[in-house]
Write a structure and sequence with these properties.
mainly alpha
Length: 389
């Protein structure tokens, strides 16, 4: 009997692995679409006749809209099959990227980036919690880690590929590529995902927001908010810090940032494996390592690789804790949408407060101090709460 159950579990995992890969492709595509302007700011601004600062706002507005839309996707798609909702959101992303590619001026570009944010928040909110539905319990952690690896892979592969395409054929071609990729992923989701009807009674918006009153759900969300805010406050200024304080330049700097992204991928899978056994311990280790390395990187730059590996585990460990703390299936989906909201809001907040601190003190190293302090604050918070088993 035990052997029959094991065989059934293996069949279930095998049957759903293509679906997990398709969802991973979705997270990769939405984050790549969000970050595309990073490598295209100069030609984009020159073509539209705007400053690089204004062009950079196209990134900010996307993150803010993703944070706003994430908690709305569950109540607004209450009775809909999640496979169908994901496909619709990916088609919306394709249309938004195509509109970016066509944009004759700044207002159209910003409108398109609003749509990118809506699609991103919705996809992230639903995709984050699909691991346990697409794999047996013993493999749910690996499935969740694979889904979140799409986020790290977007930084390592997606953004550089977009920048390279922009160099070869112009910034509009990069957004056209994003539109085509989005359509391809929508097709893959339609073919490879099984039907995913809502589990239990879908939550209304009030029910989603009331989850913030649950201490078990609130604790990991607060920890992740502190970690992500601190990370982006510091990482936004990593280049001037490495160039000014550590004396790292040119090819060494580019190679170091690439290895940072690879370390992030490794950290995602490592945290996915350990969080299954001890989710609180995993997140506490991440908090401590981030706090120390962010503070020391200006003086010991190889620690950036340790920083990358630690930060790569934040999303999967935080998501695992949040899912376990939710009382039922419907609440788990609502908690996932809150998780997506918190991360996207923290990204925007981190870049903002990091800039304020760096400008206020006249030294980008102070942004590192802020980032390290916030990570250690998350460690202190995590030491005072209990995690579900």
């Amino acid at each position: 009997m035990t052997q029959m159950k094991e065989t059934a579990g293996q069949q279930r995992e095998s049957e759903n692995l293509p679906g997990v890969v398709a969802v991973t492709a979705a997270t990769f595509t939405v984050v790549t679409s969000e970050m595309l302007p990073v490598g295209l700011l100069t030609p984009l601004g020159a073509d539209l006749g705007i400053s690089e600062g204004l062009a950079g706002l196209s990134l900010t507005v996307t993150g803010l809209l993703a944070a706003l839309s994430a908690p709305l996707v569950v109540p607004f798609s209450r009775g809909a099959d999640r496979r169908r909702v994901l496909c619709v959101l990916m088609v919306l992303l394709a249309a938004a990227n195509a509109l970016c590619a066509w944009a004759p001026g700044y207002p159209v570009l910003m409108g398109a980036r609003v749509l990118v944010g809506v699609a991103m928040g919705g996809v992230w909110a639903l995709a984050a919690g699909l691991g346990p539905r697409l794999a047996p319990p013993r493999s749910a952690g690996r499935a969740t880690a694979l889904i979140f690896s799409g986020i790290a892979a977007a930084s390592v592969l997606g953004v550089p590929a977009g920048a390279y395409l922009g160099e070869l054929a112009g910034w509009r071609a990069a957004f056209t590529g994003g539109a085509l990729l989005s359509l391809a992923v929508a097709g893959a989701l339609a073919v490879l995902l099984p039907p995913l009807p809502p589990q239990g009674t879908a939550l209304r918006l009030g029910g989603v927001l009331r989850l913030l009153g649950d201490p078990g759900v609130r604790a990991p969300l607060l920890m992740v908010a502190l970690l992500v805010t601190g990370h982006f406050a510091a990482y936004t200024y990593i280049r001037p810090v490495l160039e000014g304080t550590a004396g790292v330049h040119g090819a060494t700097l580019s190679g170091l940032l690439l290895l940072y992204g690879v370390a992030g991928l490794a950290g995602t899978f490592t945290a996915g494996a350990t969080a299954v056994r001890t989710v609180r311990g995993t997140l506490l280790v991440i908090c401590g390592v981030l706090g120390v390395t962010v503070l020391l990187v200006p003086y010991a730059w190889p620690l950036l690789l340790v920083w990358g590996m630690a930060y790569g585990g934040v999303a999967v460990a935080g998501q695992t804790w949040t899912q376990r703390a939710a009382p039922d299936a419907a609440a788990r989906e609502g908690a996932s949408s809150l998780f997506a909201m918190v991360i996207n809001a923290a990204i925007a907040l981190g870049a903002l407060v990091g800039g304020r601190v760096a400008d206020g003190f006249g030294d980008p190293v102070t942004a590192m101090w802020l980032g390290g302090a916030l990570a250690l604050a998350a460690l202190g918070l995590g030491a005072t709460v209990r995690a579900p088993q």
